Amino acid sequence: FRLLRTAWPPPSAWRWTLLAASVLAYQLALLWRGLKDNHRPGEPDLLSGLGAGNALTLARGLALALLAGFLFSPRPSGGLAWVPALLYTLAVLADYLDGYLARITQHSTLLGQKLDIEFDALGILVVTGLAVHYQQLPWWYLILGLSRYLFLLGLWWRRRRGKPVADLPPSVHRRIVAGLQMGFLSVMLWPWVHPPATTLAGVAFAIPFTASFVRDWLVASGSLDPSSRPYLETRQKMSVVLLGWLPVALRAGVVMAVAHLALPALFSLPVRSTMPSPQVLATATLVIALISVIMSTLGAAGRLASLGLIFAASVHILTYGLYLSNGFLLVSAIFLLLLGSGTWSCWRPEDTFLSRRAGQARVRQPC
Q1: Measuring CA to CA, how many Å separate 325 from each of 141, 192, 256, 285, 293?
Q2: Are 82 and 189 in contact, with CB atoms under 8 Å apart?
Q3: Terminus-to-terminus CA distance in the chain, angstroms?
Q4: Does the CA dihedral 49-53-54-55 come out positive or negative?
C-alpha cells in the first residue's frame, strides 16, 4: 500500500489494499477450515507443523492475493506494469515446487492437496479476470476462469436433486493442460503482448481446456464411464490421431509457414515502440525460429521447440499484424506444445517431465 501510494492516487491504492486483504481473508478461512486435514493420507494423527510444502503453498496464496489487488484498477505503467506478471509467474513456479517439497520431506498431507486445488482455481480466476480487464483476452475467457467454480456448482446441484456424482479418475493430460494454461495466462500479463496475437492464442488454449472440463463433467455426471470398453477403444483411436499423426502434420505445416513467409520477414522487423531493441530482437527471433524449425522437423524436444515457434510467430504478429501465415504458425505451435511432437520423434524428454510430479522417481523412455 505504501509503495502504490507513491505511484497511484490514494483511492486506487486503497482499492488495491481492500481487494488483496479480502482475498487473504478468504485464503485464511480455507486454511482454518482445512487444519483438521493436516495429516498424511491414510494416517489419522495430525502433524505438528505445516511443513515446507504447505508453507510454499501459502506463499503462493500471498502472491495471488497481491495480484488480485490489481483488479478493477487502471493498468500500471513503467516498471510497475511488470508486477502482476511477476506475481503470477512466481505463483506458477511455487505451484510446481510446493508438491516437490512436500514429497521429498515426506510431508504430503490432505490439507496440502486441498489448498493446492483451491489456490489453482483462485489463481486462474484472478489472472483471467485481470487479463480480460487489461483487454488482453476477450470477455468470454472469464467463463474459463470460473470453470472450476461452475463445475462445483453443477455437482452441488446434482447432489441437491438426489442425482449420483462419480469420482474423477486421475489424469495426466488434465494436469498437463492445466499447467500449460497457467503458463499461458502468466504471459498474458506481459506489457509487450496485446491483441490480436493474445486473442488467437487464447482461442487455441481454450479448446483443450474446455474439452478437459466437458469430459470431466460427463464422467462426474455419470454420462460417461471411463472404464468402459467403448470409451477406452475410442480414446485409444483418438490418441493415435491426436497425439500421434496430427502433430506430424502440424510439424510439416510449421516448416512450410516459416520457410514461405515468416522467415524472410524476420530479417527486417520495423521499429515498434512496444518492443525493446528491435534490431537485436529481429536477429534473436530469426535464430530462435531457425533452431526451433530444425528441432521440430526432427522431433527433438518438440514441445520446447514449439515455445520458440510461438515466440517467433508472436513477434511477427505484433510487428506486421495478423494474417493467415503467421496465425497458422502460432496456432500450430500452440497445439504442438499441447499435444507433443507425435510419431517419428527422435527425442521427447519434456514428455517425461510433464507426465510425472516433481519429486517422483524418473521413468526412462526409449527414444
Answers
A1: 25, 22, 9, 16, 15
A2: no
A3: 53
A4: positive
Looking up cell 510497475, which residue turns up? Answer: 80
State the cell numbers at 211: 474439452
Specify the 3-state DSSP secondary structure of 22.
helix
Q: Residue 363 has what pLDDT?
A: 45
Asked if residue 151 lies in contact with residue 124, where contact means CB atoms within 8 angstroms, the answer is no
Q: What is the pTM of this model?
A: 0.90
**CA 174 from chain center: how many Å?**
11
Cell of residue 150, nine digits? 461452475
Cell of 108: 504430503
320: its cell numbers: 506486421
Chain centroid offset of residue 342 CA: 21
Q: How far apart are CA 197 and CA 190, in angstroms?
A: 13
The secondary structure element, H or E, covering residue 47 is none
Of 208, 212, 66, give the one whose Cα is nearest residue 127.
66
Nearest alpha-carbon partner for 67 in 27, 145, 119, 123 = 123
Predicted local distance difference test score (pLDDT) of residue 162: 94
Instruction: Give the CA dihedral 188, 65, 181, 143, nearest 10 degrees.
Output: -90
Distance CA 85, CA 91 (A): 10
Give CA–CA dist 360/140, Å, rounded: 37
Predicted local confidence at residue 284, as pLDDT: 83
Contacts of 226 (CB under 8 A, 6+ apart): 169, 219, 232
Q: Report the distance separating Cα 146 and Cα 125, nearest Å.
A: 6
Distance CA 331, CA 246 (A): 13
Compute mean pLDDT per 10 residues along the chain, 367 residues long, and list them: 89 95 97 95 91 95 97 90 96 92 91 95 97 96 96 96 91 88 95 93 96 94 92 93 95 88 54 59 83 93 95 87 90 96 90 68 45
